[in-house]
From TrEMBL:
This is Uncharacterized protein. Signal peptide: none annotated. InterPro entries: NAD(P)-bd_dom_sf, SDR_fam. It comes from Hortaea werneckii EXF-2000. It comes from the Eukaryota.
Length: 117
């Protein structure tokens, strides 16, 4: 089945599955806006894939900053009105030591749950 989209917003593009998906899309001619927390990883992605078959743009954003999501979305859709696909691939995994439940930081756990689910 062909991938019909021409411009993709890839959240979580600075590592793992997000990086691999974004890279494959660029290689197949899909324009990608790579999003992640780490600017240095975004710069690395743009350097590695930015001169390929498709365009690469980057945007540094920390998806755990929930209150800023509306502003981020407005900025992205204003800059890229032709955007026709979004991959919500972001996720965080914090170290929580469940062998000592009394030491588990519930704010950290809440942030992880809100971000990932």
């Amino acid at each position: 089945m062909p991938f019909e989209y021409k411009k993709v917003l890839m959240l979580g593009a600075t590592s793992g599955i997000g990086w691999a998906l974004a890279a494959k899309m660029v290689e197949n001619g899909v324009n990608v806006i790579a999003v992640g927390r780490r600017q240095e990883k975004l710069d690395e992605f743009a350097k590695q894939y930015g001169s390929g078959k498709a365009t690469v743009d980057t945007a540094a954003f920390d998806i755990t900053n929930l209150k800023e999501i509306p502003n981020f979305a407005k900025e992205i859709f204003t800059k890229h009105p032709e955007l026709d696909c979004v991959f919500l691939n972001s996720g965080v995994q914090r170290h929580l030591d469940w062998t000592k439940p009394e030491n588990v930081d519930l704010d950290t756990m809440e942030q992880e749950m809100l971000t990932n689910y």
